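Most newcomers find our protein records easier to grasp once they have seen one. Sequence and backbone structure share a record, each on its own labelled line. To make this concrete, we reproduce a full record directly below:
***
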Amino acid sequence: MRRSFVIVVLAVMAAGAGTLGYIFRLRLIATSELQRQEQLAIEAAAETRRRMILPTENAMPARENFAAALQKFGLSPQESAGASAAAQTVFNLRQVRAGNTITVGRSVDGELRLIEYRIDAERKLRIVPAAPGFAAEVRSVELRNVVAAVSGSVEDSLFNGVQGAGEAPELAVRLAQIFGYDLDFYTDTRRGDTFRIIVEKKQYKGGKLAAYGRILAAEYDNGNRGYTALLFHDAEGKPAYYSADGKSLQKAFLRSPLKFAAHVTSHFSNTRFHPILKTTRPHLGVDYAAPVGTPVQTIGSGRVVFAGAKGGEGNMVHVAHANGYETMYLHLSRLSVRAGQHVSIGDTIGLVGSTGLSTGPHLDFRFLERGKYKNFEHLGLPPADPVSKRNLPEFQAVREKWLPLLKNPGLLQALDTSAAAPGAPARGGH
């Protein structure tokens, strides 16, 4: 009996020891796993710190080279010179443009990890440290093409109205070019005017605007009068804008030699008192007040027959157009063209100035028809050909697609524009 008891006690003790051993082994395994996990976490944190890049972004300054711009990010002269030398092997740094974005990325510990320069909407220059110096490449930027609706109103200018709608100034310039044959955006805009635009946009990941594509349709309400533009093509297949009834918006000439922010200070007159010469004499042009440096555009395509200084007219550009028309642009501060050069409608030919007999910065614009000066403000100019009967069904399809969306932009959903819109060429034309 006693022996049996002893055996039972020994068995219980052995079982207890085994259990304790098992528990101890489990604790050892758990502790080891915990230590392993802690080590992995430490290594992961270190790897994260090594890989994490903290970006700093600034615009490329004007009148500065790429190496000098990099030094403003804290790069040493040696680092900036090395990065520039590597970049030059894949991209001509003389083509670096002021205003384009430079991004410098550093690790959490402040070590230089990368440099990126945005070449344009679809390309970027990427520079990274690589023994013994730097390596560079030009990469394509992944973009998403969408069709978007933009609308807004005018308080003081179309330029500010478009910016107030959250869009870039470029869109205002493009809209003014479309309606510039019928509207002078210096004198015709009124407070309360409204605009609606259906436009292609190229977007980066996250939705940030990279660039505008084609304006597919637009409306501008100017007081009691509305203007509509639909992108289509002319008889030769070139992009062109038409009104809802198929009439061409394009004419031989634009309505103004300036794009924005100017007003007429002196009209065409046969008897005007000259403020400097103090005599009454004809004023054969239209004076637009504008700051020095304001771009001046040719109102029509043609050939430059004179570009230079000409007495009291100051620096002047004289353009000959088809069918006996001529235009003159006086008192310029700078010339952008030379005699004999062909210019296209809307090209910049110079900058507003105050050269010659001038009381202040302005553009004296003159228009001639078959050698006779004409009052451009009251001149009616013929439009281009309307949509042909052969192309009318195709145009009607374009109209039926975009007009309802202009009236009710809420109906518009994001569209993939890798394919051309009906009737509109896939490339060219804005």
Observations:
- Confidence is low (pLDDT under 50) at residues 418-430.
- Residues 213 and 254 are 22 Å apart (CA to CA).
